[in-house]
Amino acid sequence: MRAMEENAPVNGVSALLARIEAVLIGASGLAMAAIMLIVVMDVTLRYIFAAPLTWSYSLIGLYLSGAVFFLALSDTLHNHGHIALDVFVPLLPRPVRHLAQGLGYGASTLFVGAMTMLGYTQARDAFLFDNRVAEAVAWPTWIAYALLTVGMATLFLRCGFRTVFHLASIFSARDLVELPAPPDTNPKTGEHGE
């Protein structure tokens, strides 16, 4: 419950992005569930009935794995779930911290925007030329590129949001963007530090 309160959207823009991310993370979860069901069904059919699914690996590799990964990116960023080397960030003065993070997210926005455009171009071309994989089932490839594009476009919007609102926070008395929780410095007990 604590994590949900800390990552509550700070304004309407973030709340709108969070709603989009909730839909995408739900689709990512459904794709993960589909992977598990298909693998169980394939193993059962392969070893009990000697009739494996000929399409399972290509469906999982082409569509479902991409959906799991790309559709979860922006929600993971919103919830501060990506790896971050932020040991010294809390030690920086507030304006410097927001400036550094604003510049970092600005660079990320440009990079992710380029990846989004590349994904869109690949999806469009694959759709127009009806590109398909050369396997037992000729799955269209544009869907895989579209999943990448949707996930990266949402990540682009979240990075852009963070860029603008970190930079605006420099001139504000309060933080205008969600910040990660401070590190937990309480000593851990138990065998594994739980």
User: Main beta sheet, described?
Assistant: none
Number of helices: 6
Radius of gyration over C-alpha positions, nearest whole angstrom: 21 Å
SSE series: HHHHHH
Classify the oligomer.
single chain
Strand content: under 5%
Report how far apart the termini are: 18 Å
Helix content: 55-70%
Q: What is the SS-derived class?
A: mainly alpha
What is the strand tally?
0
What ranges have pLDDT less than 50 throughout 5 or more consecutive residues?
none
Write down the overall geometry: flat
Overall average pLDDT = 92
Commentary on this structure:
- With 194 residues, the chain is mostly helical.
- It has helices at residues 2-6, 12-48, 56-70, 73-78, 94-128, 142-169.
- Helix 5 (94-128) packs antiparallel against helix 6 (142-169).
- It is flat, with a radius of gyration of 21 Å.
- The two termini are 18 Å apart.
- The model has no long low-confidence stretch (mean pLDDT 92).
Could you outline the blueprint of secondary structure elements for this entry?
Layout (H helix, E strand, L loop, with lengths): L1 H5 L5 H37 L7 H15 L2 H6 L15 H35 L13 H28 L25
